[in-house]
Each structure stands twice: as structure tokens, then as C-alpha cells.
Specification:
Elements: H1 5-18, H2 26-33, H3 37-49, E1 53-56, E2 62-65, H4 74-82, H5 89-92, H6 105-121, H7 125-128, H8 132-138
Helix pairs in contact: 1-3, 1-4, 2-3
């Protein structure tokens, strides 16, 4: 599995917010990671719709985690942003190729996906959040 840049930015945004005790803004995240404000704004929108971030507009507004870091599953965030995580289309559907009725590869890939999903769902944002000092040194 290779994750998209959008998922990378979403996870970085959550990690950044996990180091904060107060609201941040999109430009803070973008500056810290050297990425475009527009890209961060897009993932913030997705994360807010998914219930992971609170976004408040206007003076005194900003973004913050909607849940404690311990309750945010990395696997669930990846699923939110990526959608279909199947290694091949046949794992999620039947009748996608001429050998589907006897193919053993489908079962192998389905098991690999299950193990991967189980592992990623067991990792929380709290497990991957850097310290505030580490993040500041990376700037």
C-alpha cells in the first residue's frame, strides 16, 4: 500500500495538533511542514467532516483535535482519506477477472489487508505524536 500525499498531510496535521494545548491555524501547520496552505485546508476540511478536528472560523478561531489523541486511530484516519484500501480490486469485489472462481491469491491479499488494517487501527495518534520540542527543531 502506498498512501497519497493527502493522507500524509492529514496525518501530519493531526500530529501537529496533538502537540498543542490550544488552537492552531492552518498556516501554522503549513509553515511547520513546508506545505501549501491550500493543501492543509483541504485535509482539515476532510478531518473536520470525519469528526477528528474542530474548526472555528473568525477572530479567535482555528483548528484543534475533536477527540483525545488516544481515541484517534491511525487506521481509521487513513481509511477516511484514502477510501478503498484494497491491494487489488478483486479483494473487494467478485467476478473482476477470469480466474476469480479458483484464484488463491485473492485470499492471501485479503488476509494481508486484514492484518494491516488490524495493526493500523491499533495505533493511535498518541502513539505517534512527537514532542513539541522535536517538532520545533524540524521547522
Amino acid at each position: 500500500m502506498k498512501l497519497t500525499t493527502q493522507t500524509d498531510f492529514a496525518l501530519r496535521t493531526l500530529m501537529y495538533l496533538g502537540t498543542r494545548s490550544s488552537r492552531a491555524n492552518v498556516s501554522d501547520v503549513a509553515t511547520t511542514f513546508g506545505i501549501s496552505v491550500n493543501h492543509v485546508a483541504k485535509v482539515v476540511n476532510l478531518l473536520a467532516r470525519g469528526g477528528y478536528i474542530h474548526s472555528t472560523r473568525g477572530i479567535g478561531g482555528g483548528i484543534e483535535l475533536a477527540l483525545p489523541a488516544e481515541q484517534i486511530s491511525i487506521g481509521r484516519v487513513i481509511e477516511l482519506i484514502e477510501g478503498d484500501l484494497h491491494l487489488l480490486s478483486c479483494v473487494g469485489e467478485d467476478d473482476t477477472c477470469s480466474i476469480h472462481s479458483f484464484c488463491k491469491l485473492k485470499g492471501v491479499l485479503a488476509e494481508a489487508e486484514r492484518v494491516q488494517r488490524e495493526y493500523l487501527n491499533g495505533v493511535t495518534l498518541a502513539d505517534v505524536v512527537p514532542s513539541r520540542k522535536q517538532l520545533q527543531r524540524a521547522e
